[in-house]
């Protein structure tokens, strides 16, 4: 670049400016004022950047003209398009810090995306072990934070075990207002995937070290749930058209927007008129055509209008979202909050079987979760009874929690419900994120932060394999066929955007049947009316190799033109990308349309693109990263010594393995291959046996890394004759039985554990399909009598397990505290007419390693009869 040249030349000095070759716009919001925007714009322009002002309504961002968007939030309409076009969205702090350091900083730590929950966090570590330090730093960096070795004014958190260290003293003496927190805070944040309050972890006197689980926790507020606790809005809009002008001054959230209100909202003529007047007073207008609309408001994820609007990239939300915009006069994405997006009539497949109750949530968080259960299609109950399947709790201490552990009811946090709804797929209860409860945190504080999964919506509700053709008169013909092969069509208005002129097929009932008007379900009902949700089986896709749906050659020509139109924006984006610092960015939804040849930039048509800086110092584009091969092996490692003392080597070699198609996983049930130096009884190895993986030696990992290529795992099968003799099993036989068991070795068993061994062996029992309960000494099984009374009649284990044994098993250690529980366990078993067997933990390890439940062999593990 010209920056390497010397001399007083004006052009050269301008090219050397800090923000040269950067074109930007600024999106104002509640947290980024107009005055601050002007200051940032001045600073950028003075340092060589080009300022692209937004339109007056600040709703349309000129993505094709800019390289950076300065915004304190991702809640603006153009954010998804900016991500697709690889336009950097950064916080205002990026500008100030880059200017103060006189160099461009990486944009990732300054991304306002809430999923990077450590964004804005700058840490330094004091007196913690090196291994823990590396793990914390890696987690913070991956989630958008920064690390510095010294104590600077930018540091927000000092990670320490005590305040008696040089860094804490230095921060205090220099007046640096950094929070001193225990490393446990980072561990809990990373496990949850959310940033929780630091207060319980802050030094001096951290709550997690001073208070017990039984001590009350302050009920937190849930700021992310403002105006988003229900999919059904109130009966009247939040403000009236006749409200004083002072309340509606500056009301412009709908400026130049056309909004379509769907018939399925069930609005009466009076309420509809009120809503239309409010839209007009906000600068918008109401239209009856989805093709002319910028925003589509509906209640359900179905119908041709919903599919058209969704596929066209229009904003699709429900009436609650519309009221939110009216109330706050600020645009926010309808996918930002789960209950701002239309619901499905039949709910989430499989969720109707669930009866869910809540514990330890309050205020808006409780009402939000109640409504989310109903929107997902489940049944919400205020109290817990025998028929409940799930308990969603903000912390694991309450009478309901004690009863849930006693009765074997699934106990999870709200993230399981939110992510099941967001991804439209019931999430696995074995995911540790859903069963993690920080010691002194009420998880209600992070309720409402989960966003709708766009890819899941597109895949399930408006898939991309649908077809649409064009008419000569400028309209579009929807081609559809019913299940008997009959076809039909209907002309609709044209789409102006050439990228949206795609072809897709709809079922005939979507066109011939008007969208039904739904009655509003009151809060607290157990279902949503029994109406059906459209499924992917109803959407008739078309394969690109199938013959066209019309015999006209004109249709084929038009489809070819449509594909060319699809490429045109990408080509335009490529021409813009050539002006970006660092050259063309590859990946994402845009395919690479340039090649790198000896440092010269050339487009596909062979035109020479070098010399963009005047011809003397052409900038070279970076070499495109090679596409990683698909994952063919999911590897679980245990007992591997190569990376123990070298975390940096571990990170590098894990990436190298991924480049070979090997993904290192942590969940034993996700692995296809298990690598160990020998037969070991670690938690990972024992739990993974249920999945019947290919068990190989860790020498395979070493050989793949040393040779730089993927070797046959079958040539490195684990052979440990000594270990098999020691454990009394043959590994090949055990794996064969595991394959036959299909993770159901303990499917009919309820096994009790003492508190001391519960956390470790619960994972092993559940991995094999069993149910694990804590035994605390109560004659009723685990919870005290109060919990049992509160929850109703306890579920008993009177039934035979069907495997020739009627005894109840308690897995226990041999500490004095655990021995005191044995008598109570025997009494509980006797009250149910069953025998009691207190066994060592080795019994469970032996059963799972052999993948065989042999009751006679259990006798050698008995601690009490």
Question: What do these coordinates show?
Answer:
There is one protein chain. Helices cover 31% and strands 13% of the residues. With 865 residues, it is an alpha/beta fold. The chain folds into six domains: 19-110, 3-Layer(aba) Sandwich (Rossmann fold); 122-210, Rossmann fold, CATH 3.40.50.10190; 225-340, 3-Layer(aba) Sandwich (Rossmann fold), CATH 3.40.50; 351-454, BRCT domain (Rossmann fold, 3-Layer(aba) Sandwich), CATH 3.40.50.10190; 633-732, Rossmann fold; 744-864, Rossmann fold (3-Layer(aba) Sandwich). Strands 28-27-29-30-31 form a five-stranded mixed β-sheet. The model is unreliable at 1-15, 468-555, 582-624 and 780-804 (pLDDT under 50). 35% of the residues are buried.
Tags for this model:
865 residues; 31% helix; Rossmann fold; single chain; 6 domains; four-stranded parallel β-sheet; five-stranded mixed β-sheet; alpha/beta
Judged by helices, strands and strand pairing, the structural class is alpha/beta
Report the β-strand fraction as a percent range. Answer: 5-15%
The poorly predicted ranges are 1-15, 468-555, 582-624, 780-804
CATH superfamily of the largest domain: BRCT domain
- Count of individual domains: 6
CATH hierarchy class name of the largest domain: Alpha Beta
Estimate the helix proportion, in percent: 25-40%
Distance between the termini: 83 Å
The total count of helices amounts to: 27
Principal-axes geometry comes out as globular
- Average predicted local confidence, pLDDT: 77
Mind telling me the C-alpha Rg? Answer: 31 Å
What's the layout of helices and strands?
Blueprint lengths: L9 H6 L7 E4 L7 H13 L3 E2 L16 E3 L8 H6 L3 E3 L1 H10 L20 E4 L4 H13 L3 E2 L9 E3 L6 H8 L5 E3 L2 H9 L14 H4 L34 H4 L9 E4 L7 H13 L3 E2 L8 E3 L6 H8 L3 E3 L1 H10 L26 E5 L3 H13 L3 E2 L9 E4 L5 H9 L2 E3 L1 H10 L30 H7 L8 E2 L5 E6 L5 E6 L12 E2 L1 H5 L40 H25 L16 E4 L2 E4 L29 E5 L9 H13 L2 E3 L8 E4 L6 H6 L5 E4 L1 H9 L13 H7 L3 H11 L8 E4 L1 H13 L3 E4 L10 H7 L16 E4 L4 H16 L4 E4 L1 H10 L11 E3 L1
Parallel strand pairs: 1-2, 1-3, 3-4, 5-6, 5-7, 7-8, 9-10, 9-11, 11-12, 13-14, 13-15, 15-16, 18-20, 23-24, 23-25, 25-26, 27-28, 27-29, 29-30
Antiparallel strand pairs: 17-18, 18-19, 21-22, 30-31
Helix pairs in contact: 14-25
């Amino acid at each position: 670049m010209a920056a390497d040249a010397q001399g007083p030349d004006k052009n050269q000095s301008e090219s050397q400016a800090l923000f040269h070759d950067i074109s930007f716009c600024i999106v104002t919001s509640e947290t980024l004022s107009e005055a601050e925007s002007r200051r940032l714009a001045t600073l950028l322009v003075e340092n060589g950047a080009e300022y692209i002002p937004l339109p007056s309504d600040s709703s349309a961002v000129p993505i094709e003209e800019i390289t950076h968007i300065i915004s304190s939030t991702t809640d603006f309409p153009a954010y998804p398009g900016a991500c697709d076009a690889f336009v950097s969205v950064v916080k205002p702090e990026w500008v100030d810090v880059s200017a103060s350091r006189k160099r461009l900083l990486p944009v990732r730590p300054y991304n306002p995306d809430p999923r990077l929950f450590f964004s804005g966090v700058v840490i330094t570590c004091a007196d913690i072990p090196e291994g823990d330090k590396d793990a914390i730093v890696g987690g913070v960096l991956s989630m958008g934070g920064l690390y510095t070795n010294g104590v600077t004014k930018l540091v927000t958190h000092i990670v320490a075990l005590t305040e008696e260290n040089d860094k804490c003293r230095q921060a205090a003496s220099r007046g640096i207002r950094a929070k001193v927190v225990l490393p446990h805070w980072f561990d809990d944040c990373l496990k949850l995937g959310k940033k929780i309050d630091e207060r319980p972890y802050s030094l001096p006197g951290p709550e997690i070290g001073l208070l017990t689980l039984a001590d009350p926790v302050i009920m937190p507020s849930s700021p992310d749930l403002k105006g988003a606790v229900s999919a059904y809005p109130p009966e009247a809009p939040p403000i009236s058209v006749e409200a004083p002008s002072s309340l509606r001054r500056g009301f412009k959230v709908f400026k130049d927007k056309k909004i379509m209100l769907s018939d399925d909202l069930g609005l009466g003529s009076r309420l509809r008129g009120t809503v239309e007047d409010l839209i007009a007073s906000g600068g918008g207008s109401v239209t009856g055509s989805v093709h002319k609309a910028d925003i589509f408001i509906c209640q359900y994820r179905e119908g041709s209008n919903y599919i058209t609007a969704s596929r066209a990239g229009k904003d699709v939300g429900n009436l609650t979202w519309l009221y939110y915009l009216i109330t706050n006069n600020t645009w926010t994405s309808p996918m930002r909050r789960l209950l701002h997006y239309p619901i499905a009539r039949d709910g989430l497949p499989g969720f109707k079987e669930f009866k869910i109750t809540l514990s330890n949530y309050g205020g808006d968080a409780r009402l939000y979760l109640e409504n989310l259960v109903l929107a997902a299609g489940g049944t919400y109950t205020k109290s817990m009874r025998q028929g409940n399947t799930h308990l969603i709790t903000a912390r694991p201490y309450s009478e309901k929690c004690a009863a849930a552990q006693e009765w074997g009811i699934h106990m999870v946090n709200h993230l399981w419900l939110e992510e099941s709804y967001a991804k439209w797929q019931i999430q696995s209860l074995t995911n540790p994120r859903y069963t993690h409860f920080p010691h002194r945190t009420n998880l209600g504080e992070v309720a409402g932060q989960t966003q709708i999964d766009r890819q899941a919506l597109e895949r399930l509700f408006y898939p991309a394999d649908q077809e649409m053709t064009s008419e000569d008169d400028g309209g579009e013909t929807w081609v559809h066929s019913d299940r008997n092969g009959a076809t039909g069509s209907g002309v609709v208005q044209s789409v102006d955007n050439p990228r949206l002129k795609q072809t897709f097929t709809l079922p005939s009932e979507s066109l011939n049947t008007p969208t039904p008007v739904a009655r509003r379900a009151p809060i607290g009902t157990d279902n949503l009316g029994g109406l059906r949700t459209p499924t992917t089986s109803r959407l008739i896709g078309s394969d690109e190799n199938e013959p066209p749906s019309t015999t006209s050659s004109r249709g084929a020509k038009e489809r070819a033109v449509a594909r060319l139109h699809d490429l045109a924006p990408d080509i335009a984006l490529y021409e813009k990308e050539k002006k970006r610092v660092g050259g063309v960015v590859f990946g994402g939804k845009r395919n690479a349309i340039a090649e790198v040849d000896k440092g010269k930039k050339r487009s596909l048509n062979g035109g020479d693109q070098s010399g963009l800086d005047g011809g003397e110092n052409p900038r070279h584009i970076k070499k495109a990263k090679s596409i990683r091969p698909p994952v063919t092996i999911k590897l679980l490692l245990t007992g591997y010594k190569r990376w123990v003392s070298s975390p940096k080597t571990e990170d590098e070699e894990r990436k190298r393995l991924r480049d070979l198609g090997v993904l290192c996983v942590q969940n034993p049930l996700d692995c296809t291959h298990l690598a160990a130096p020998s037969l070991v009884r670690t938690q990972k190895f024992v739990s993974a046996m249920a999945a019947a993986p290919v068990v190989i030696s860790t020498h395979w990992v070493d050989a793949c890394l040393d040779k730089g290529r993927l070797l046959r795992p079958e040539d490195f099968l684990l052979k440990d004759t000594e270990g098999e003799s020691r454990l009394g099993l043959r590994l090949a036989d055990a794996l064969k039985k595991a394959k036959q068991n299909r993770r159901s070795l303990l499917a009919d068993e309820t096994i009790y554990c003492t508190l001391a061994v519960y956390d470790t062996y619960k994972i092993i029992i559940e991995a094999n399909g069993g149910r694990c309960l804590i035994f605390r000494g109560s004659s009723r099984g685990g919870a005290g009598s109060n919990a049992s009374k509160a929850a109703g009649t306890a579920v008993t284990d009177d039934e035979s397990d069907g495997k020739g044994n009627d005894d109840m098993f308690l897995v226990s250690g041999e500490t004095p505290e655990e021995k005191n529980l044995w008598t109570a366990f025997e009494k509980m078993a006797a009250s149910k007419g069953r025998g009691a067997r207190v066994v060592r933990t080795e019994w469970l390890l032996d059963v799972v390693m052999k993948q065989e439940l042999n009751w006679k062999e259990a006798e050698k593990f008995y601690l009490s009869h």
